[in-house]
Amino acid sequence: MRSVQVHFKRFTAALAFFLPLQIAFSESGLEEKSKPPAKRDSSRKINVQNEGITVRGRADSRSTSEGKIDSQRLKARPIQNVGELAEAIPGVIVTQHSGGGKANQFFLRGFNLDHGTDFASSIDGVPINNPSHAHGQGYTDLNFIIPELIREIEYKKGVYHVDEGDFSSAGAMRMNYFKSLPKSLIKIEGGSLGFRRTVFAESKRIGSGNLLYAAEYSHYDGPWTIPDHYNKLNSFLGYSRGDASEGMSVQFLGYRGSWHATNQIPQRALKIGRSWLNADAGGLNRYDAEDPNDGGHSRRASITVEAHKKTANSEVKALLYSTYYDLDLFSDFTFFLNDPVNGDQVEQKDRRTIGGGKASYSRTLFLGTLKSENTFGVQFRRDYIHTGLYHTQARSRLERLKLDRVIESTASVYYENRISFTEKIKAFAGVRNDTFFFNVADDLTNISTIRRAQTTNPKAGLNLGPWKGFDFYLNGGYGFHSNDAKGLLIPYSTVSPIAKTGGSEVGMKAMILSGLQSSLVFWRLDLDSELVYSGDDGTTSPSRPSTRRGVEWSNLYSLSSWLTVDVDISISKAKYRKYDPIGNYVPQAIGKVFAAGISFDRWEYFGSIRVRYFGPRALIESDWVRSTPSTLWNLQIGKHIGDFCSIQLDVFNLTNAPASQVQYYYPTLLKNEAPGPDNGGYNDVLTHPVMPRNIRFSLSIKY
Fold first, then answer.
1. Which PANTHER family does the entry mention (predicted)?
2. Which one of 266, 282, 302, 551 is CB 3.0 to 4.6 Å from 672, fit for a cystine?
3. Burial of 60 (0-12, 13-18, 19+ CB in 10 A)
């Protein structure tokens, strides 16, 4: 209780600090100007026939594998949970292997990114990844996001962007909310598997600014024998002034969720099956749980203050934020392997207060015929973290396994210079320095340590074109991810707090046919240390260095103003660089991804149909055990009723495929099993199924 009070006091103190900043910004001349905004350079952005995809213009792109997806494109995708918004990014796969309130699992560029490691996510500039998290490094919970408020998603892949730091080796996703809405929104949804959801959002003009407020409530049970009972409540309040050239904003976000979870179960239990004729056989059905008490609850609250100003030759941005977050997660990964009497359920507890900010200044200079853009930036963040690991039974604590306190601070500076030699030849070079400060204490052993670590990473790129509809890109650079600070307490540990990455890619973008955008990129990424999933406690741990190679081919074809087709193909390979007799395949590394869709919006009707192929993966280093591939189809169909109303039907898993969301391979022991040969249990494939065919209806009213 004392730690909760301390965290809320810090959060309240942060509010008291940030609110006067809003006044300061307001009094410093950031009022809405009476002069009209400067005309936008139409050559810098291309909108494809209102179909919601925005390709960065030739003046903006630094690599082949970056882009933007706006709200219209997101609306055309059937979304079963908020994390699936990330699948709009070419090559990304999103799964859910536990209760709905737990963070999603992400796959991209040969990575099983677990819950966000090596994939940086942010909302309106505020980072979402949590370092030194109780469940996994870089834990990224997107459940507090309200999809209807998202204005656009920016994505970048690779290590070539100086403004992206920790967790961004595979890529980065930036979600941005609307500052105001043209009409108020009420949306009511309901469907099978116990799903219901209500969203309300409204904008009001107050003084010279806009007030936007929204709330979301949802409930979901799922197909599980023991329902998820996932209850989620989200809220948002934002006030903004000015425009894209000059303005400021302040935002408050809140989230609360609680759920039951059905975790992955071994295939041998599924083969036995569950029957009342032999209740003690230890068998399970597809939607059963071995431990009926898994689940969790989580809360999040944050405040953000932002200001910006842009002139013809310069731009300045500043942002400050403070976040309170907590999670209690109950999971049983091995059942009765470690404790044959009480079971192996554990509670992972994370409570933290975060404060941070960033600022950047850009200046454009003209040296004769050369155009030089210079950007300087600083970023900082401090996490006050309390984590705990407990052995539990039916969510009651039996034993304290770990209690840690961490103060983790990061200070970053970066610089980038971009030169346009001609309209067809552009290059950039930059450097980023990140310094980490770790203060870690184990409350059970009274062991503590203070460490400092830093990394400097150069980045560069070359852009040639356009030539007859083709642009060519060459990029290279270095990045990193931080490791869990709690590992610094391990005696004689050789694990570095920072794991370096190096990457390169060559690619092209083509616009040779009217309405067709196509990109092809070949990439490589080297990691000094691989983070590997551990089934014993559900966390990740550092492993050997690895190399990934791959190719991505993305296409968007607007056949007309109302019909669009998109096709994305990604192929990658991941191997350890250091030989080990057990094998050199990186477990869970994604190999092949195919995604495609057709969307339309004509007269009063709209809809889309989408397919996603998730290829097989090595589950162990030898590649002797592999996951089963899956193919899922989703459908959306709807009708506009005037300008104020629409109805919509979404069908998920249209073919009712009996596929798996995730699969793992490690030893477990069921309740009625005798001890086995694999560390006391039995090695087996553990699986968590996709949802069966389910439908959702929605009614949206705008006024």
1. FERRICHROME IRON RECEPTOR-RELATED (PTHR32552), TONB-DEPENDENT OUTER MEMBRANE RECEPTOR (PTHR32552:SF81)
2. 282
3. exposed
HSE at residue 400, side-chain half, CA atoms within 13 A, is 9
Residue 333, exposed/middle/buried by CB under 10 A (0-12, 13-18, 19+)?
Answer: buried
Please give the C-alpha separations between residue 317 and each of 58, 249, 361, 528, in angstroms, as whole numbers.
Answer: 23, 12, 7, 34
pLDDT block averages, 10 residues each, the chain of length 703: 45 38 33 36 34 48 94 95 96 92 95 91 98 94 98 97 96 97 97 98 96 98 97 98 96 98 95 67 86 97 98 97 98 95 97 98 93 97 97 97 97 98 96 98 94 97 94 97 89 81 97 93 92 54 87 96 97 94 94 98 96 97 96 98 96 97 95 94 96 98 96
Q: How far apart are CA 147 and CA 676, in angstroms?
A: 47
Helix (H/G/I), strand (E/B), else coil: 149: helix
Amino acid making up residue 697:
F
User: In DSSP terms, which residues pair with 152 in a beta bridge?
Assistant: 70, 176
Starting at the edge strand found earlier in the chain, the sheet holding 150-157 runs: 45-47, 53-56, 66-70, 150-157, 171-177, 119-123, 126-127
Q: Give the tens place of pLDDT for each residue, 331-372.
A: 999 999 999 999 999 999 999 999 999 999 999 999 888 999
3-state secondary structure 114-136: CCCCCEEEEECCEECCECCCCCC
Query: Would you state the structure tokens that stand for residue 437, as one six-digit string?
Result: 């400060």
Assess whether the previous peptide bond of 292 is cis (omega < 30° from 0).
Answer: no
CA separation for the pair 673, 627 (Å, rounded): 25
Give me the residues paired with residue 190 across strands. 196, 697
CATH code at position 169: 2.40.170.20
**Sequence-separated (6 or more) residues with CB below 8 Å from residue 9:** none
Phi, psi of 426 (to 5 degrees): -135, 150
Degrees (nearest 5) of the Cα angle 453, 451, 476? 15
DSSP structure string for 543-600? ---EEEEEEEEEEEEE-SSSEEEEEEEEEEEEEESS--TT-SBPTT---EEEEEEEEE
Structure tokens at 26: 């307001």
Residue 530 CA: distances (Å) to CA of 169, 489, 541: 12, 20, 8
Residues 6+ apart with CB under 8 A from 617: 112, 587, 588, 589, 590, 591, 626, 627, 663
Contact 522, 505 (CB under 8 A): yes
Task: Specify the pairing of strand 195-206 against strand 150-157.
Answer: unpaired
Q: How many residues does the chain have?
A: 703
End-to-end CA distance of the chain: 45
pTM of the model: 0.90
> In this structure, is residue 186 part of a structural domain?
no
Please check whether residue 184 lies inside any domain of the structure: no
| Token representation of residue 509 | 């973008």
Which residues have C-beta within 8 Å of that of residue 100, sequence separation ≥ 6? 81, 143, 220, 222, 228, 230, 232, 259
Q: Is residue 42 within 8 Å of 60, Cβ to Cβ?
A: no
Show the domain range for 90.
2-177+191-702
Instruction: Say how far apart CA 382 and CA 70 lie, in whole Å.
Output: 31
Instruction: Write out the two tokens for 3.
Output: 């730690």
Number of domains forming the structure of the chain: 1
Let me know if residue 182 belongs to a domain.
no
CA 663 to chain centre: 20
Whole-angstrom Cα distance, residue 290 to residue 267?
12
DSSP per-residue string spanning 32-55: PPSSPPPPP-GGGEEE-TTSSEEE
- With respect to residue 183, please indicate whether it lies within any of the assigned structural domains: no
Strand 171-177, strand 185-191: pairing: unpaired
Residue 316 identity (one-letter amino acid): V
The residue to which tokens 């990014």 are assigned: 89
Query: For residue 172, how many C-alpha atoms fall within 13 Å in the half-sphere facing its CB?
Result: 26
